[in-house]
From TrEMBL, chain A:
PANTHER family: GLUTATHIONE IMPORT ATP-BINDING PROTEIN GSIA (PTHR43776:SF15), TRANSPORT ATP-BINDING PROTEIN (PTHR43776). It holds the Pfam family ABC_tran. Part of the ABC transporter complex GsiABCD involved in glutathione import. Responsible for energy coupling to the transport system. PROSITE patterns: ABC_TRANSPORTER_1 (PS00211), ABC_TRANSPORTER_2 (PS50893). This is Glutathione import ATP-binding protein GsiA. It comes from the Bacteria. Keywords: ATP-binding, Cell inner membrane, Cell membrane, Membrane, Nucleotide-binding, Translocase, Transport. It is found in: Cell inner membrane; Membrane. GO terms for biological process: transmembrane transport.
From TrEMBL, chain B:
GO terms for molecular function: ATP binding; ATP hydrolysis activity. It holds the Pfam family ABC_tran. Belongs to the ABC transporter superfamily. It is found in: Cell inner membrane. It is a peripheral membrane protein. Keywords: ATP-binding, Cell membrane, Membrane, Nucleotide-binding, Transport. The keyword Transmembrane does not apply. InterPro entries: AAA+_ATPase, ABC_Ni/Peptide_Import, ABC_transporter-like_ATP-bd, P-loop_NTPase. GO terms for cellular component: plasma membrane. One of its GO terms (biological process) is transmembrane transport. This is Peptide/nickel transport system ATP-binding protein. SMART domains: AAA. The keyword Cell wall biogenesis/degradation does not apply.
Amino acid sequence: MSAITIRNLNVWFGAGAERSDAVKDVSFDVAEGESFGLVGESGSGKSTILRAIEGIAPNWSGHVSIAGEVLGKRRSRQFYRNVQMVFQDPYASLHPRQTVDRVLSEVMGLHGFTDIDSRIGRLLDDVGLGSGFRFRYPHQLSGGQRQRVAIARALAPEPRILLLDEPTSALDVSVQAEILNLLADLRAEHNLTYVMVSHDLGVVGHLCERIAVMKSAEIVEVLGVGEMRKLEANDPYTRHLLESSIHSVR
Amino acid sequence: MNDDKPLLDIENLQVRFATRTGTFEAVRGISFTLGRERLGIVGESGSGKSMTGRAILRLIRSPGTIEADRMALHGEDLLSVPEKRMRQLRGGKISMIMQDPKFSLNPVMSVGQQMVEALRTHESVSKAEARARAIAMLEEVSIRDPERVYDLFPHEVSGGMGQRIMIAMMLLPNPEVLIADEPTSALDVSVQLQVLDIMDRLVRERGMGLIFISHDLNLVAKFCDRIVIMYAGRIVEVCKASELRNASHPYTLGLLNSVPDLEHPRERLEVLQRDPAWREAPSVSART
C-alpha cells in the first residue's frame, strides 16, 4: 500500500474573478518508506501541495489518501499523528518564548503520551542535540540547532510521514550537510516516508529517489534520481532547470 | 584589465560591536585590494563578509565601529572624509546591491521614479534625460517592454525582475565599484544565472570593480576572478577562481565537500569539523 496517493488535486485561492489556481490537476503516489521530491520555482505550487496534504490549504478538491485514510474536511486524530511537517525557516517556526522542553511536551501532550519526560531525552538524542538543550529558548540556539528542534518536534508524535518544506534553505551549506545527514539517518532508523520540497536540485537529488518537477501549478515531469543525474529529462523546462543547477567545481 | 592601480585599497580593516558581554569583533583585521576585477568574498553566516561590504560604505551603525590602517578609494581616504562627501561616494562611486529586492526597493514609489531619483542625486540631468537613461538602462538589464516596467510599482514585478531593476538603478550613476551582497540568494535557481550573467556583462563592459559576497562557493568560482574565503572575521585563504580546485585550507575544502552535488552523489555528506586554530590563525592578505 502506498503511503500517499494523490489524484487530480486542485488547490486555489480566492473566488470568482479573483480566483488563482495554485495547484492544477496534480496526481502522484509515494510508496511507504520512499522519499519523494518536489522541485520548481517559487510560486509553482510545490509548497501548496504539502499544505493541502497537511490540511492547512483553505480550498482544495480531488482525492488524497494517506496510509489508506481518504482525507476529507475532518481528519482523524491518527492522521495528525501520522503526518508531520518541518518548515523552512527555523527562526520563524519556533515560539520565541517557549523552551525546547515546552515545545516538545505540548505536542506529546496533545497526542496523549504520558511518558513525556523520558521521551524528550530520547528525542533530543535522536536529533543529535543531547539533553543539555532541553531548557533553552530558541534565541539561545543557532540556525542548525533550531532546525534540529523543529525536526524533533515533528518526530515527537511518532509520525510515519514527514513533509519537509525547504528544510535547509535558510541554513549555511556546512549546516545543511549536517541536517541532510540527520534526515537520512532518521529515515532509515524510523522507516519514515518523506515528501520534500526544495528549489535546490542538489539537495533533492541527495535525499530523494523520485522527483516531480513543477511549473505554473502543474507537474511537468516525474523522474528518478538516476535519470536526473544523467540529465535524461524529456521536458524542456526540466532540462533548463537541470542545466542551471550544474555548476560544481569538483 | 588595468592592474597598475587598485580602485579600493584596504588594510587591516576591523569592525567591532560593543555589547553587554564585551566587544564582539565581526571583522578582525583583513586586508585586500580591488582592481578592475571581480573579487568574490565567501564565508558562512557570521564570518564577517557582509560586514566587510558595509564597512567599505561606512554603513555600520553605532555601537559598531570601523577601524582600518588604510581604506581608500582612488587614494581618497574613506575613513576620514566627511559624511557629506561620503553620501556622494555612496551610489556615485561605490554602489551596493542587497540580497532581497523586496526589501531594498521603495514600495511606495514607482520603479521609474526611484531610478530617476537615484540618478539625479548624483548627476544634474534634466528629468527628460533621466527618464530616457533609466529606460535605456532597464533595457540593458534585459527587461522587455521597459517603458511599461518604468511605471510599475515594486510589488508588481517578480523577484528576478526586481533584482534586475536594482542592478539597473545601481549602475545608472556609473559607479566604479559595485558591491553585491548575496544578490541572487532570494531568487530561483533558474533566474539566478540570468541575473548574474547580466550583472557580469555590465560590470565587464564598464570595466568596474565588483565585490561579490556570497555563501555559495561554486557560484562565486564561476563568476569571479579572485576568491577570498573568510572565517570568523579573518581571511583564511585567497586564490584565483580557476585554481579553487587546488585550494588547500581545510575550511575551504570542507565548504566545497559539504555541498550535495547532483552529478557526483555521495552516500553521506561531509560535515565540517571546525578547528579552533583557524580562528586564531593570522589573516591572509589579499592585496595584490
